[in-house]
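Subject line: Sequence and fold of a protein, written as structure tokens
Enclosed: The protein record, placed directly beneath this head.
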Amino acid sequence: MSLPPILQDLRLPVVGSPMFIVSGPELVIAQCKAGIVGSFPALNAREREGEPPLLDAWLTRIAEELDRHNQANPDSPAAPFAVNQIVHRSNARLQRDIEICHRHKVPIWITSLGARVEVNDAAHDCGGIALHDIINATFARKALEKGADGLIAVAAGAGGHAGPQSPFALVQEIREFFDGPLLLSGAIATGRAVLAAQAMGADLAYIGSPFIATAEAHAPADYKRMIVDSSAEDIITSSVFTGISGNYLGPSIRAAGMDPDVLGHGSPSDMDFAEDGAKPKVWSQIWGSGMGIGAVKEVVPAAALVDRLAREYAAARTALAAAPGLRGG
């Protein structure tokens, strides 16, 4: 099945993944202007009690800035944007945020932590599409049964709560029963890796961690620098912080007074933290990251990162086309 029109004609087959705390309007707008889908979690838009919904203001800003860009650049319009909804029952804001996104006619909805028919219906009712992130084929089938238009395969090596399966195995199994839109996440940080994702059977790459080290990301300077200075060897996989296995930057764990080499697989109550007994906050102190960050060498504007990915992608396609095995040699 061909991709829906909204995912066609991107400059690069890439969706910038929504990152908790890190993704905001500045990053989304920069990603979209650069030609890839930008996204953010709805829960990142946090207003003080009594204030109007910040999500409403963010969506207005994004739509207006992208519209101005498109009017000024009719030959290179911005890519569409996406909003991530955490659909777990613990999200008390979900219904309100669904209504706001529906009113703004958000074009791409990304759902996480449980597939919900009513969320997919809301996306479709306003003309959007719904993509659901999954970590195995069982969850993929459930998401499709509940009306998801496409899937995001979160494979081993992805940042945050990554799945444990190899991208080769995960994509292979999904493609046995689904020929619709499929995105792949997991240590994708170069244009060559984007092409590899397509070669495995995915339609688009889903990239997060490299965008932490961009000028527009809502991340502390130390976090951005740590992304630049780290590599796959610095990523620690543990369930001790949230009870769900995730990938984190080892140096941030050390900075919180813990030894990442002795982390177990329990809960925060099982661990010894800093000397004052304070427990570090996941995401704001214990920083998530995928394993592809060895390719990130400096903090740059998001547009510069997309430019690099585009150059590498084009070069990889040219090199692959000239490979002896593909020429019958």
In short: Residues 302-321 form the longest helix (20 residues).
